[in-house]
Write the structure tokens for this entry.
Amino acid sequence: MSYWNLNTFMELVLPKLLTMTLVSFPIGSIVGAVVGWLATLIWRRTMRGESLSSPKRWLIKPAMFGSFIGMLLVGMLPIHANPASLVGGPYSGLWFLMMFVFLAPLGSIAGAIIGATLGTKQFSQIKREKLIGIVLLLAYFFASVVLYVGLAPPALVMEKPTANDPFPVVAELKGYESGPKDLALSDNGQQLAVVTVRYGEDKVEIWDLPRKKVLYSFKTKPNGSVTLKDILSSLEFSKDGQQLITAAVQQVQVRNLTNGAVQMRLDGGEEAYPIADNKLITLASVDAWANEPEPHNLKVWDLATGKLLQTIDADLAPTERFSVPIAISPDGRLVAFPPGLYSDRIEIWDMGNQKQITALTSSQPAGVLSLAFSPDGEQLAIALGQGTPLSIWDWRSPKQIKTIAKADRAEVLYWTKQGVFVGSDGAFQVWDPQTGEARQKLDLQPSEERAKSDLRFPLGPSALSADRTTLTVYVPRQGIRVWRVDK
């Protein structure tokens, strides 16, 4: 992928060039006029008694032009080419003011002096106009290059690596400056959604994995100040693949997939789970500053109308765990969750009938970390914080049919035809749910870090496609990697 990006030039470089010009012109005109007038007086005094070809020639115009160029390149360019100029906020404003107070006088006065000095030289009218045009062209070209290099994001490259992983690698996406906030895969695993934050703005990109290209990208920052309704926490594709669900801290948005336009806003927050029959489950939007904050219960919405269908009592605060322990069955009709993070019960609801159909009670109430339905939807994997870390349940009976004591404490849990993926300490260990034996291990640590010490990076954001064929994980210092996990 080319490093040149026309959108970056139009959205970042061009507006800054215009701002720099609008600020430099009046300052350069005023400073240049004053310096040019003084320079003229000094020049005439030093040339008194000598023959002047143009005794009435003034140095004001060349000083104004020089002051404008100096203000543009010295007074404004170092400020606007710095990424801090895009962050915003009081600290950024203070930094901008301090830099401006120091650089603006330096650039405008130095440029005026150089312009006035050159103005003492004799040039023909045609040569003078040509020189002005060349200087302007070079100044704006230099400013454009510096702005683009300073502000443009790194080039994003999707390639097929030669990593020796236990599963086929679909692609690896490199170029993100920091880890993404969240990842999402379409139901068939063909599209990847990535939300990142840069310069205080959330940006979403939709990648076409087979074609290795970005289909759509958009920023979610609205006009005006950013609130908790705008800071994204997670995202998901709708079941029909036509919409993107973005969950902010205190609001859930249903967006047009192609341009990011918000089609519907729902009273939810943090997490959203598309289910069958064009419905959506969200956590309730909670005001943490309230005297008596409401619990993080579950809300069920009709995506066609935006109508709230049902509220299920629960208390699932997302800040207390790596992920919220909620599992959706492969057909999208069953939802499993504990009514509280430290509850010894796991409730299973039939969302078509909007009622609870069974509940599982653990003999070790130690906090549920993560849940996952089997590919056929008949069994449920449960990861606990203490005691037996992983157990397999027949939820219809309901009874526990297998315990896997050797599994690590799970940060995230997935279940495919290959087995149960337990994500922990920078790796995914795959366990056979029938025998309880370890199968493959997907180590996500950079090889150089693995060789230097036993320090393990925590898992980055990850996602499994609804058809259980494709897994994606952010690998620290390497990028976003995508595997086919059905083979």
Remarks:
- The chain is about 25% helix and 35% strand.
- Residues 227 and 250 are 9 Å apart (CA to CA).
